[in-house]
Design a protein that fits this description.
The chain has 147 residues and is α+β, with helices and mostly antiparallel strands. The chain has one domain: Gcn5-related N-acetyltransferase (GNAT) (Aminopeptidase). The protein is built from five helices and seven strands. The protein has a seven-stranded mixed β-sheet with strand order 1-2-3-4-5-7-6, sandwiched between helices. It is globular and about 35 Å long. The N and C termini lie far apart (31 Å). The structure holds coenzyme A. Coenzyme A binds next to β4, α4 and α5.
Length: 147
């Protein structure tokens, strides 16, 4: 059974030792922990039979928010779970009356860009060499036009 719930510190502790190997997350544990505890942040986890297979989070900056992270466990990619998580983040943002969702993504990260495009995010600008030699693409989803 697949469930999506608010992420807790226990959830993070459960995946602490496999963050890099199984999720290739770009944050270390302590940065992630402080993000999770930040009052402006909201993280969710997706579980398959109670096992965490992905997580994602937003930082609220009313009337906007930023997607901080969205990662699916390597063995579970390409099975629709990323789409489910992103849809849930959008629903969550709407519940906080967010007008625009922003994110930045490495221009070489085609799976993520394709996922964001699929749910209506549009490229609005770019930042040169944001990720070492790669540029970042800044994308936005305008929720005010989707009501
Ligand atoms: C990006 C990521 C979250 C997608 O999750 P996922 O569960 O594999 O994606 P889904 O199976 O739900 O696919 C949804 C859509 O994403 C896109 N997508 C996913 N994997 C893709 C791939 N390998 N190549 C191209 N498009 C891809 C497609 O548009 C897909 O829709 P489709 O199946 O109708 O073609 C996952 O690849 C991941 O965890 N990557 C590493 C972390 C990361 O880069 N996060 C984004 C940081 S900005």
């Amino acid at each position: 059974m697949v469930t999506i719930t608010k992420m807790t510190l226990d959830d993070l502790n459960n995946i602490k030792d496999i963050l890099i190997s199984d999720f290739d997350d770009f944050w270390n544990y302590s940065i992630f922990k402080s993000e999770l505890e930040s009052p402006n942040s909201y993280y969710i986890v997706i579980k398959n039979n109670s096992k965490i297979i992905g997580f994602a989070g937003i930082k609220l900056c009313p009337p906007d928010c930023d997607i901080m992270n969205i990662v699916i466990k390597k063995d579970f990619r390409n099975q629709g779970y990323g789409l489910l998580l992103l849809k849930e983040l959008i629903k969550l943002s709407k519940s906080f009356d967010v007008q625009n969702i922003f994110l930045d993504v490495n221009e070489k990260n085609l799976p993520a860009i394709s996922l964001y495009n699929k749910l209506g995010f549009k490229k609005i600008s770019a930042r040169k060499n944001y990720y070492k030699e790669n540029n970042a693409i800044i994308m936005k989803l305008d929720l005010s036009q989707k009501q």
